[in-house]
Amino acid sequence: MKPITVLYFASIRTHLGIEQESFPAPSTLSKVKAEIVSRHPDDKTKSILEGCMWSVGDEMADEDEDGDKEIKGGVVVAVIPPVSGG
Amino acid sequence: MQEHTSLTLEEYRRYGRQMILRGFGLPGQLKLKNAKVAVIGAGGLGCPALQYLAGAGVGTIGIFDFDTVEASNLHRQVLHTTARVGEYKAESAKAALTSLNPHITIITHTCPLLPSTALSLLAPYNLVLDCTDRPQTRYLVNDACVRLDVPLISGAAIEWAGQWCVLGGYHQGGLPIPAAESRREDGDHKGIGRATWPAPSLPTGSSDQMSPPPTPTPRTRRPCYRCLFPQPLANTSGNDRSGTCEEEGVYGPIVGVVGVQMAAEAIKVVLGVDDPLPRLNLISMSPALTADPASTSTPFRSIRVRGPSGKCKACGEGPGVVVGDDLEAVGYDEFCGVRKTYDQYAGEGEDKVDVMGKRTTTQASVERISVQGLKDGFYDGRIPGGYVTSLDPVSPERSGRSEEGDGKKVLVDVRAELEYGLCALPGSTNIPMKAFLSDPIGRLRSISQTAHLPSEVYFMCRRGNDSLISAEALRAALSESESEAGKAVERCRVKDVVGGVRAWSDQVDPTFPMY
Questions:
Q1: How many domains, chain B?
Q2: Do B348 and B319 lie in a common domain?
Q3: Where is the composition biased (Basic and acidic residues) (chain B) (predicted)?
Q4: HSE on the CB side for A10, CA within 13 Å?
Q5: pLDDT tens, residue by residue, B374-386
Q6: In Å, how far is A37's CA from the nearest CA of chain B?
Q7: Domains, chain A, ranges and CATH?
Q8: How many angstroms away from the CA of A75 is the closest CA of chain B?
Q9: Do B331 and B384 have their domain in common?
Q10: Which one of the listed residues B165, B245, B336, B492 is annotated catalytic?
């Protein structure tokens, strides 16, 4: 099965120093999030992720409601931190 | 207020190239002329957004900005000029826009938008662009727009990345009559009502008296900023400026692109030809982070977001709604985790420093010293010449000994390597904060070049936040190793330089290049 691609935007991209990563499929948002933390086990990664929004495919996903829904291989997940500068 | 129903000959000539586009026409251009658009912030996002709104012929533009133009703004805030440094940004932007388009009305607001004033200041407008640079204002602007019932174009950018979206009001519903021109209902807070939306358009073509009356097309409400971002990003840096261009840096073109996109969305909202579904648009311009050809920077992504959230604390229906008539009760600073930091006191004298010292009573043994104290204690009262940059033949990664070379005093600069390379104090050693915090005592030993710890350690950074965090970490690590050993191991005085290199540049030596 094709992997799940996770795209990093804004502060999470700067902090991790990578644009994207692959994760094994199938998975769920909760699992992907936990795996990001275990690959990058520092406090700042954790705290940035706590404030992030998520998209699965082309749609925004709600961590509480959609956290355990299956994500198939080949799907693109984006990690979207709020940005406040301007 | 009187609606414009015609254009002058000059306006026909000026706007002709866009009036022949689908969605514009004469009705569209008149919608723009009748629109009253508030742009909050005339900075990186506001400048390009204002440029295109004014160019397109938005009839009334309110510019909100209480800040003044600084030289460090000019790489990205393209309406301002070198000659206008020191002027209010709102006035400077007005000067630029007036010369671009004399057919529009521009109103400047140079007072800050506060919970106590936001509703009355925004009531005359029927569309708002959030081009601000801090989360508490973002939530305030959103809540005011929800309360006034006007659409909001939200945009944000920092470093290499940005995002924007259209919020509030109705998809393809155009603009309402501003709250200030709407009929006030009894009991409205401070007499400020809500904007009035025109009735939904009726399907046309049916004049048959026998058929039932046509039903209005249902309108779809857009979500608000709190629906998308119910919580601000946690600020763990202990620095209230984190997330600002000053702290994080900003690539000029990113605010340009996001600001122009905001104007593009705003014009479509005015014309009623905006997206039928809510979307959040993300853009990144970051330099390639790897040489891997399979890696892509994915510069752009447009994501469908959900409609208004029932759980939303601003536009929702539930019991948790915090946004009502009284925005002063919302508590934006607390919500966004804003505290008073030493930073607001820096450079205001020793008394203020003492006040802030109380914040750190648990690590009371970190001494807070002024830049004058650094000059006296580390440089024996002399101003050291010849600041170090990364272009110097001698690497700034030097021994870290003070000029006496006794190794007993060290000056640790915890700024990032790149910033340290811009300009640094001679005799200082660069240990970026992240590296320092991972092993304070070990890092310190690595630069002292003797078996002993230095007798005095001075901490320095850009403004004094990171240096205090680092100094406290060292103090805590020393206390821990002392309690493990059961006695004082080595005497090491930990000193934090309040105000950092900025204060050095301001108060000791203006020839230190401040960035």
A1: 2
A2: no
A3: 181-191
A4: 26
A5: 999 999 999 987 8
A6: 17
A7: 4-80 (3.10.20.30)
A8: 14
A9: no
A10: B245
Give how far A42 is from chain B: nearest CA, Å. Answer: 11
Catalogue the E-assigned strands of B289-391. Answer: 300-304, 366-369
In this structure, which amino acid lies at residue B264? A
Please write the tens of the pLDDT for every residue from A10-38. Answer: 989 989 988 899 999 999 999 999 999 99
CA dist B28 and B33 (Å) reads 9
Instruction: Please check whether residues B240 and B119 belong to one and the same domain.
Output: yes
Q: Which residues of B touch A56 (CB under 8 A)?
A: none
B255 falls within a domain: yes
pTM of the model: 0.83
Report the residue of B296, B303, B332 to disrupt the A interface, i.e. the one with the largest count of A CBs within 10 Å. B303
Higher pLDDT, B1 or B442: B442
User: By three-state DSSP, how is residue B481 classified?
Assistant: helix
To the nearest whole angstrom, how far is the Cα of B134 from the nearest Cα of chain A? 5
Partner B, chain A 28-57, Cβ-Cβ below 8 Å = 43-44, 47-48, 50-51, 53, 55
d(CA B452, CA B87): 54
Final residue before a domain boundary, out of B303, B336, B369: B336
Question: Which is catalytic among the residues B131, B145, B165, B461?
Answer: B461
What is the ipTM for the molecules in this complex?
A: 0.90
Cβ–Cβ below 8 Å for A86 and B131: yes
Provide the number of CB pairs (under 8 Å) joining chain A to chain B: 124
Please state, in angstroms and as integers, the Cα–Cα distance from residue B143 to each residue in B151, B180, B183, B224, B227, following that order.
11, 17, 21, 8, 11
In a domain, B216, yes or no: no
Give the closest of A9, A55, A84 to B135, CB-based: A84
Asked if residue B344 has pLDDT above 50, the reply is no
Sequence letter at residue B32: L
Query: Do B37 and B131 fall into the same domain?
Result: yes
Query: Is B247 in the same domain as B388?
Result: no
Q: Which chain B residue has the Cα nearest residue A44?
A: B236
Cα–Cα distances in angstroms (integers) from residue A18 to residues A22, B62, B159, B174, B297, in the given order: 11, 40, 15, 41, 9
- Each residue's pLDDT tens digit, B185-221: 555 555 788 999 987 766 555 555 566 666 656 689 9
A54 → chain B, closest CA residue: B303
Contact: B290, A20; criterion CB under 8 Å: no
Q: Which pLDDT score, from 0 to 100, does residue B494 have?
A: 94
User: Would you call B233 and A82 a contact, using CB atoms and an 8 Å cutoff?
Assistant: yes
Angstrom distance (rounded) from CA B295 to CA B274: 33
Asked whether residue B383 falls in the same domain as residue B415, the answer is yes
**Which among B309, B336, B363 is the end of a domain?**
B336
Tell me if B45 and A11 make a contact (CB, 8 A cut-off): no
pLDDT of residue B192: 85
Cβ proximity of B134 and B245 under 8 Å: no
Specify if B420 maps to a domain.
yes
- What's the rounded Cα separation, in Å, for the pair B444 and B492? 11
* Domain of B40, in residue numbers: 9-182+221-336
Contact list, A47 vs chain B (CB under 8 Å): 234, 236
Based on the fold, state whether residues B39 and B156 are members of the same structural domain: yes
- Is B273 found in the same domain as B143? yes
Residue B385 domain-assigned? yes
